[in-house]
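[job 0417] fold request received: Protein BUD31 homolog
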Amino acid sequence: MPKIRSLRRQPPPDGWELIEPTLNEIENKVREAENEGHEGKRRVETVWPIFQLHHQRSRYIYELYYKRKAISKELYEYCLSEKYADKALIAKWKKQGYENLCCLRCIQTKDTNFGTQCICRVPKAKLEEGKVVECVHCGCRGCSG
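[job 0417] inference complete; emitting structure tokens
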């Protein structure tokens, strides 16, 4: 997903130079995924790599701030305001039971046939043995844990 820039771009806070190379690398992978051919793929499969990279970028910032405490609050807020990370997805990761959530569409009940959550949210122990689970929205193979 392309970065959305604000009109009043503020200078990045201290510590930005430490995380910028990783964020740029993920951004380059997103561009490659957008330009990748879609021959032989289903319609929904073409956006799965973009969803996965978006998740990876948000998870990177989340881990730096909440788990490792390696970046400051100002830098974290800057990353959220400049759309480097998904604020709503990170808010869900902080809640119990959603620590490994792959995308917000998987918990929206309006997108499913029976008004429930996505199949990737079902624990693997409750599924048939040997059954491959694949989310239609993002390609996740099970984020319930």
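[job 0417] notes: The longest helix spans residues 16-35. The chain has two domains: 1-94, 98-145.
[job 0417] exit 0
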